[in-house]
């Protein structure tokens, strides 16, 4: 089966980014000239997905509005003769079919994904975290769908992390099956230092078989009353197999201050409008450090 739908959970509180995220969703914070979430939606579109399901909450309507058609803005720009800008705005709203589902309380990532069960139905689907950015030649999700088309089982994207950082991630252990691909055997959320020899950390990109919904529906809330995704992923891996894929590219956790700043620098250095001047500026700044 083909992956046609992508779930993007954006209902979290964004506490690591307060006060910036108090009135503005962290997913709407700007990286050079567009919000973080737009890069993620563009990755989804470039990967051949047909529909996006945002899992939202109150206070996140700016995300839905960003991808909606703005009649007043379209007319105001057209009246002023700014047709190119009007076309650019309309392009954003025409990118892809979007559906929103409300998560009434931030009950964890597992719960957020479970909220998509009726819209996704009985087919494999992608999950992209709304604050995880990947800069790559080929879109990260496209790399993953290529693998999914071969193996027809769930795929999680992983990156190698230093041993002293494994406690911050969901870590997978497994055996290599081909270049960049591992069959998952074990999975542990934020392992205590020294309890795993693996350095393969799960990042915010998944392709999941729909069996995950039943598993999530039966998962009891864990730490902080939240329904965690990792336990359900392990159950799914045991039930029908799962692959870890070491994607080509660089991932940024744009929901975290340092990750966000690193993302701005990386994306600005590749942006055709500013890359040259920005690169000169960075070199100047570096001399003063
Ligand atoms: P994070 O833990 O990175 O986001 O969740 P958060 O909870 O918003 O941020 P902090 O930790 O308080 O700073 C990963 C993704 O899952 C979504 C978030 O919006 C984010 O995109 N999420 C998380 C939900 O949609 N619902 C939840 O209950 C929790």
What would you note in describing this structure?
This protein has 289 residues and is an alpha/beta fold. The protein has one domain (5-249): Alpha-Beta Complex (Spore Coat Polysaccharide Biosynthesis Protein SpsA, Chain A). It has helices at 36-46, 61-66, 71-79, 83-94, 109-114, 117-120, 140-151, 211-218, 229-240, 257-268, 275-287; strands at residues 5-9, 30-31, 34-35, 51-56, 97-102, 125-128, 132-135, 154-160, 170-178, 181-189, 200-208, 242-246, 250-253. The strands form 3 sheets. The protein has a 5-stranded mixed beta barrel. It has a two-stranded antiparallel sheet with strand order 2-3. The longest helix has 13 residues, at 275-287. The structure holds uridine 5'-triphosphate.
Features:
Spore Coat Polysaccharide Biosynthesis Protein SpsA, Chain A; five-stranded mixed β-barrel; alpha/beta; binds uridine 5'-triphosphate; two-stranded antiparallel ribbon; 289 residues
Count of distinct structural domains: 1
Strand order of the largest sheet: 8-11-9-10-12
Oligomerization status of the protein chains: single chain
Distance linking N and C termini: 53 Å
Poorly predicted runs: none
Tally of alpha and pi helices: 11
The CATH topology name reads Spore Coat Polysaccharide Biosynthesis Protein SpsA, Chain A
Give me the count of strands. Answer: 13
Identify every distinct bound molecule in the structure, by name, code or SMILES. Answer: uridine 5'-triphosphate
List the helices and strands in order. EEEHEHHHEHHEEHEEEEHHEEHH
């Amino acid at each position: 089966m083909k992956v046609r739908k992508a779930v993007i959970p954006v209902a979290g509180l964004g506490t690591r980014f307060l006060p910036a995220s108090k009135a503005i969703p962290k997913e709407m914070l700007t990286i050079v000239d567009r919000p973080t979430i737009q890069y993620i939606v563009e990755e989804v579109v470039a990967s051949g997905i047909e529909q996006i399901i945002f899992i939202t909450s109150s206070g996140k309507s700016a995300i839905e509005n960003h991808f909606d058609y703005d009649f007043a803005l379209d007319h105001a720009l057209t009246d002023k003769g700014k047709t190119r800008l009007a076309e650019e705005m309309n392009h954003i709203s025409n990118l892809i079919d979007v559906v929103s589902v409300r998560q009434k309380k931030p009950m964890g990532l597992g719960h957020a994904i479970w909220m998509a069960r009726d819209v996704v139905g009985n087919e494999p689907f992608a999950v992209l975290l709304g604050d995880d950015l990947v800069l790559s030649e080929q879109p990260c999700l496209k790399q993953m769908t290529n693998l999914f088309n071969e193996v027809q089982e769930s795929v999680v994207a992983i990156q190698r992390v230093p041993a002293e950082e494994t406690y911050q991630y969901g870590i997978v252990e497994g055996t290599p099956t081909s270049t960049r691909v591992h069959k998952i055997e074990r999975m542990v959320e934020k392992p205590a230092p020294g309890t795993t020899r693996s350095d393969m950390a799960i990042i915010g990109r998944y392709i999941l078989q729909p069996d995950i919904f039943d598993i999530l529906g039966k998962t009891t809330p864990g730490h902080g009353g939240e329904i965690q995704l990792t336990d359900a992923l392990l159950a799914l891996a045991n039930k029908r197999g799962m692959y870890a894929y070491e994607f080509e590219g660089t991932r940024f956790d744009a929901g975290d201050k340092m990750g966000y700043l690193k993302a701005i620098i990386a994306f600005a250095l590749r942006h055709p409008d500013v890359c040259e001047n920005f690169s000169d500026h960075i070199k100047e700044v570096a001399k003063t450090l």
